[in-house]
Amino acid sequence: MENYKKAYIAGGCFWGMEDLFRTQPGIKDTEVGYQGGENENPSYKYHPGHAEGIELIYDPTETSFRKILDYFFRMHNPTTVDQQGNDKGSSYRSAIFYQNEEEKSIAEEMINIVNASGKWDGEVVTTLEPFSPFWKAEENHQDYLVKNPNGYTCHFLRFDESFIKEDK
What we know:
By secondary structure, this protein is of the alpha+beta class. It has a single domain (about 5-145), classed as 2-Layer Sandwich (Peptide Methionine Sulfoxide Reductase, Chain A). About 25% of the residues lie in helices and about 25% in strands. The chain is built from four helices and eight strands. The protein has helices at about 15-20, 65-75, 100-115, 145, and strands spanning about 5-10, 25-35, 50-60, 85, 85-90, 95-100, 125-130, 135. A six-stranded mixed β-sheet has the order 7-6-1-3-2-8, covered by helices on one side. A two-stranded antiparallel sheet has the order 4-5. Strand 6 (about 95-100), helix 3 and strand 7 form a beta-alpha-beta unit. About 35% of the residues are buried. The mean pLDDT is about 95.
């Protein structure tokens, strides 16, 4: 695991994101939690300013940050401000928590590619936020849709075709 990397994103309710990402090639582990907010040790009941996010642990020999973002932009609607499906509020914002300038540059490039594709009706509103502490959510939220297969999700693959033609 020492050569694995981590990526941090938010795109609405973390249950659905985790359920879809867990099946992607190169993703080795997932955790749902809170990121980008005002308090330490946030909880589901109190996480002011935090987004419901996901920590993805991935093998860079099998996937890349670019491929992760490509999938991210196809499995949620990045053109709605603070909303995914029925979920509304800043907790459900679309965000990429970049850890370094390379990730920020890749995220900016992907946003430009997604906007230029014309696949979404509006422009991408995904925020690029510097990495901040990721606080793991309570255990009952981890692997939620595995434990509750009929649970709520607003995430699904909207486009089969990748936004990127080849990984750099």
